[in-house]
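User: Can you predict the 3D structure for this chain?
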Amino acid sequence: MNKKNPDKSNIKTYWFVDLLVVIIFLSIAAFSILLFRNDLMRSIETRDETPVGQIIIRNNVVQRRYADRVLWERLFVDSPVYSGDLIRAADLSAASIHIDENQINLNENTLIRITQAPDGKGPFHVDLREGNLSVSTSSGTGLILNIMGKQVHAAPGTVLNAELGEEGMVVRVSEGNAVLIEESGESRELSQGMIIAHDIEGTELIIAAAVVTYPQPNARFLKSTEEMIPISFSWNRINLKPEDTLHLQIANDKNFTRNIHLIQGLDSNAQSLFDTGNWHWRLLFVQTGLADSVLSVGEFTVTDGSGPDLLSPVMNSVFRYHTDPPQLRFQWLEKSGASYYILEVSDTHDFANLVIRRQVTAASFIQSELGEGTWYWRVRPGFSSAYEGSTGYSSISYFRIEKSADTRVAVIEVPQPPSRERYYKVQPGDFLSLIAEIVYNDFFQWQRIFEANDIEDPDLIYVDQILIIPKL
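Assistant: Here is the predicted structure, written as structure tokens:
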């Protein structure tokens, strides 16, 4: 009697299905690798293109996706940007972009695209896809902001703020002039202190508002002394009665829960003193029996612009040589946010006769051309044009160089500074891996800082916190 195996046909079917599934997954993997390769090649090819601008300030996570690329890449200070780039600032992040002498400031959760005409002529276009940005123009052609199908032509010398959300768009002109062009082609002049708002359907809204003309959106100030600095506020009143008074509320956080300061009964200006840190402000319209109305909000940063601590040559050091002058390494502590440093060396205490004046990007400089004598030196930090205010010099240090007739005298290297702990003051937007990059040039050394300071949660550090930076 012949017996059939009833499961043989089923096994063949299962085998075919398994093979088909494997083929499909391999095809998907191959296609993904192809996309990744093409995306990588586009990244490499962009290095041969001329960038249209660069990132000059960055806080936390800021990313770029070039033109038709698939992958996002993280941007850092001095990263180039290209025409066609999509750039986004994540939650609790921000960036400043310098393009053709114009500055674009992105606030958190903001997405834009930058484009330029193929012939390279005419103003740059910035498409605001979502979020909040400010623009400061200074070039001859200005800049065009595209928002909700409308164009805002910002003339040279214009400062404006624009936001786009689920409820619609708002554009405020703080300085200069702009022209709003509707999809229909109709245009409207927007001068300093004006505001225009549209709901998501495109209907213009008439709202009570206060357009702040100073400080500029996302302003950055430098404080070079220990004293707090005065900052003035001024604004234009829109659709408010003459008798209506406003309140200015200031805090360290955007939720207005820390370090709150309230100035009441204001008309169109105010002034207050500020220390270093990231500051948030809002103008409130308070009516009896009604909820407070927020007319305008903003933030600015006060950065320590004082001179850095000098490390070497150590104060009152003596360097002796027989034939060739010694090689000296000038070194100082980095200043958070500084773009460069000015090193000055003089043979007089008042620096009337400068022997060396160099601009350097690193926190050190090597020199081997100084001869006999007593030499005085100091350092001043430099910041990008996004900052307002001046910086200060470091304290003055000095050392001596002596020539010896003793042929056995060897060149004395720069003495190491006394053993000391290094410290770092947390700045707005800092996180541990970023601090590790700044002080060690290595993201992955954040664990050392974490352990040295007995931090309970690496995500919970605060502005102006003093951290011990252990030596590697």
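The chain has five domains: 17-48, 53-207, 219-304, 310-403, 422-469. Residues 8-46 form the longest helix (39 residues).
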